[in-house]
Specification:
The chain is of the alpha+beta class. The protein has 18 helices and 21 strands.
């Protein structure tokens, strides 16, 4: 007997008439049955497993039909998972809505006729099925479509024609709410933000008015662009936290499967949740407490919604951004050690800076010789000299930190140290008297001016081949008398020797440039004006003096980096029960802002937008403020 299968696939026509019959022959001895497209007998029904059953010859005129899945099938009305039968009995197997009728062919092959039951004559069809007479899906679709057209188009048009007092605003039917005051001037210019139809507002559109440029000219061009676009207020210029590609790769996906799939789909259709418009939302609904006749806009700025907090991205940042130099910071309790930006070399046209951990006791090459311990010793010679000489300058006591470090106008930092203002009271630059008996002082800050002064000529007279590389001087530019004074000035006991790093190579002297660091941690927003940090105001529990954090009284080298490590900050800002509630509330935003990591997040609330009129903004820019 030939072990061959003869398949007949019978499909009913949708419009009625004779059915469609497709026939093909398959070599045995076994065929697969299932919903998978590669199955020999493909049954596209959800009630059928991908790989449901197999049929094979077991002898002359006999076949075996058995299930390979958990679900079984029916044979002649009986449920089973395996059966062996004669083809001469014309058995019928049921798989979901499909029927497989077996018969013996004239040539000894097994004939399998596949048909599908449509259940059109079901005695109790669903009232919501396609065949339902009243609530059929097709009827309901037409009814809903016609209703939308009537309510949204025809009725408003007819009402506006009959009732003159009715004002139709078709765009309001699609708007989810009014714009804020900051963007109200764009109320009738939708394309200013929605550049492409059915595409979410992109970051490039927002940054065209709000991006902070690398220089003043670029920022001025951005402000002018906003002004020419009709903005009555000066826009807030912001820096991007990181490139869009890094932000997208750094942001973790939600844990649940559904939200995770949704986030991936949003990214695929260019609608990610890390856009500017994901956090700063416009068209928010009006406040329910306000009167209904109050005209929008109702808010000063777009509504701020936090999509991702700092910890969600920075807890496993290295896993998602392998080449990042940032250290994972899952929470404040596991904040990495401070790595201040330290000048490691002053050689060359530009000084070299490097981030180093404090636990390694890094040395700063700032070109200055200044032992803090000597100057702050209350019983030392410097203290005695300050008591005697300081009376003429408004003080007459031993030196303290505030004697040299004066707060800047904001109170958050300090003014740069200036030799003439902060040091000249004790370290005089006088080197001779003029014909009238008045002291003559050396200029400070440029070696060539010192050379010219010692040579007895005005600085403007120096030029041509006499000028040397900055920081290097040769005696050939002096007369015999001037050369002696020049060598004494830059030698031990001279006016410049005790404070500056000076090296000699024969007759050539070189002085290391002085570069004093103003901010060791430019991406951290430490605020000295806070009372607990030693700033002005009533003393509070936990308040610190300068020496509590900066160990200047025991530092004998100016190369010492005198800032505390993170453990000192954790005394107040750590999440322990011993801290006060105010300190316990500290989080990442206390020192880092999203758009400007080197600044703290601005407090809630802001000055009225009316204070940012363009007239005032232009005045500030033209006055250099």
């Amino acid at each position: 007997m030939s072990q061959e299968f003869h398949l007949k696939l019978i499909t009913q026509r949708a419009a009625g008439g004779d059915p469609i019959i497709r026939e093909r022959r398959l070599a045995g001895p076994e065929l697969s049955i299932g919903r998978a497209p590669e199955s020999d007998i493909h049954l596209p029904d959800l009630a059928v497993d991908l790989h449901h059953a197999k049929v094979r010859f077991s002898g002359s005129g006999r076949v075996v039909l058995e299930s390979v899945a958990d679900a079984g099938f029916e044979l002649n009305g009986r449920s089973t998972k395996r059966v062996e039968f004669n083809l001469s009995g014309d058995p019928v197997a049921a798989f979901g809505a499909y029927r497989l009728a077996f018969a013996a062919g004239d040539d000894g092959a097994a004939v399998i006729t596949v048909t599908r039951e449509e259940h059109e004559d079901h005695p109790n069809p669903s009232i919501f099925s396609l065949k339902a007479p009243v609530f059929g899906r097709r009827n309901m679709a037409w009814a809903l479509g016609v209703s939308i057209v009537l309510l949204s188009l025809i009725v408003p048009l007819v009402a506006s024609g009959w009732l003159s007092q009715v004002k139709i605003h078709p765009d309001q039917q699609w708007s989810s709410g009014p714009l804020s005051k900051a963007h109200a001037f764009l109320e009738t210019d939708c394309k200013a933000c929605h550049v492409k139809a059915f595409v979410a507002v992109q970051d490039e559109t927002c940054l065209s008015c709000h991006k902070a440029g690398p220089d003043a000219a670029t920022q001025a061009a951005t402000l002018d662009r906003s002004r020419s676009g009709g903005s009555p207020f000066e826009p807030l210029l912001i820096a991007e936290h990181a490139s869009q590609d890094k932000l997208r790769r750094a942001a973790p996906l939600p844990d649940a499967i559904g939200p995770k799939v949704g986030a991936l789909i949003q990214r695929a259709v260019n609608h990610p949740t890390d856009r500017c418009a994901s956090c700063h939302i416009e068209h928010t609904k009006p406040d329910a407490k306000l009167e209904t006749n109050v005209k929008a806009p109702l808010a000063d700025k777009p509504t701020l919604v936090v999509v991702q907090d700092c910890e969600s991205c920075h807890s496993q940042l290295k896993m998602r951004l392998g080449k990042t130099e940032l250290i994972d910071t899952p929470d404040w309790g596991r904040h990495p050690a401070f790595r201040p930006l330290i000048m490691t070399s002053a050689a060359g046209p530009k000084p070299t800076f490097q981030r180093l951990e404090l636990k390694g006791l890094p040395m700063e090459r700032n070109g200055l010789i200044f032992p803090h311990k000597m100057h702050l010793d209350p019983l030392g010679g410097v203290a005695r000299q300050a008591i005697v000489l300081g009376k003429a300058n408004g003080y007459g006591a031993a030196l303290q930190c505030a004697s040299c470090h004066a707060p800047d106008p904001s109170g958050k930092g300090f003014r740069p140290i200036e030799m003439e203002k902060d040091c000249a009271s004790c370290h005089s630059l006088a080197f001779a008297r003029d014909t009238n008996g008045q002291l003559k002082s050396l200029p400070h800050g440029e070696l060539q001016k010192v050379v010219d002064t010692l040579a007895g000529r005005p600085p403007a007279a120096t030029g041509g081949t006499d000028r040397q590389r900055p920081g290097t001087i040769r005696p050939a530019v002096f007369t015999a008398t001037g050369a002696g004074a020049w060598r004494a000035t830059f030698s031990k006991g001279g006016a410049c020797y005790d404070c500056h790093t000076i090296t000699w190579a024969g007759d050539t002297v070189q002085m290391a440039p002085v570069k004093l660091t103003q901010r060791y941690m430019p991406r951290g927003a430490f605020d000295h004006s806070v009372p607990e940090h030693g700033g002005p105001g009533p003393s509070k529990a936990g308040g610190y003096e300068c020496v509590d954090c900066h160990k200047a009284t025991v530092s004998e080298r100016s190369a010492d980096v005198l800032i505390p490590d993170v453990a000192k900050c954790a005394n107040c800002h750590g999440k322990t029960e011993a801290q006060t509630k105010a300190a316990d509330d500290a989080d990442c935003t206390t020192c880092h802002s999203f758009h400007a990591p080197g600044k703290a997040t601005p407090p809630a609330g802001h000055p009225p937008l009316e204070t940012l009129k363009w007239t005032q903004a232009v005045t500030r820019r033209t006055s250099g403020g």
